[in-house]
């Protein structure tokens, strides 16, 4: 009869890579979910900041500042951040309903995860609209 010498090494050779892959996928999912929630929060902050301004130019600048500050305060490090602000409804007359829309895109760096099938980066995107005060004067 043969002993079971070496069977632990074979089990480890099969089990350890599978466990490492599983842990890597959990980290990937967690980082993606946290970043998505933070990008949504940044878009909401930016839309709110833009909606309380009186001019489209100032609204756009405030939205970009609010989005980048929000992501920074949350500790999210993006490879690049793109903030798009739609202020076209600032041209509507006072008394007419209007909104400002903000889209925030963050390219999340995943290159430190050496998991097969996981891309080196992932684009996380969120869009939020905020109403402009109907009766507030706009320039």
Mean pLDDT: 90
Structural shape: rod-shaped
Q: Classify the beta-strand content into a percent band.
A: 15-25%
Instruction: Please write the string of helix (H) and strand (E) elements.
Output: HHEEE
What fold name goes in the CATH topology slot? Pantoate--beta-alanine Ligase, Chain: A,domain 2
How many domains? The number is 1
Q: Topology, please?
A:
Blueprint: H1 7-51, H2 56-73, E1 78-86, E2 98-109, E3 121-132
Antiparallel strand pairs: 1-2, 2-3
Helix pairs in contact: 1-2
What would a concise description of this structure say?
With 139 residues, this protein is an alpha+beta fold. Helix 1 runs antiparallel to helix 2.
Question: What does it look like?
Answer:
The protein has 139 residues and is an alpha+beta fold. The chain has a single domain (7-132), classed as Pantoate--beta-alanine Ligase, Chain: A,domain 2. The chain is built from 2 helices and 3 strands. The protein has helices at residues 7-51, 56-73; strands spanning 78-86, 98-109, 121-132. Strands 1-2-3 form a 3-stranded antiparallel beta sheet, covered by helices on one side. Helix 1 (7-51) runs antiparallel to helix 2. It starts with 6 loop residues before the first helix and ends in a 7-residue tail after the last strand.
């Amino acid at each position: 009869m043969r002993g079971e010498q070496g069977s632990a090494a074979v089990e480890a050779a099969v089990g350890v890579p599978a466990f490492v892959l599983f842990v890597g996928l959990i980290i990937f999912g967690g980082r993606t979910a946290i970043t998505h929630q933070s990008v949504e929060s940044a878009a909401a902050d930016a839309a709110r900041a833009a909606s309380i301004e009186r001019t489209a130019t100032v609204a756009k600048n405030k939205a970009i500042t609010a989005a980048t500050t929000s992501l920074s305060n949350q500790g999210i490090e993006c490879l690049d951040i793109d903030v798009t602000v739609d202020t076209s409804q600032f041209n509507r007359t006072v008394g007419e309903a209007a909104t400002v829309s903000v889209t925030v895109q963050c390219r999340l760096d995943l290159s430190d995860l050496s998991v097969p099938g996981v891309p080196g980066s992932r684009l996380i995107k969120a869009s939020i609209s905020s109403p402009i005060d109907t009766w507030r004067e706009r320039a």
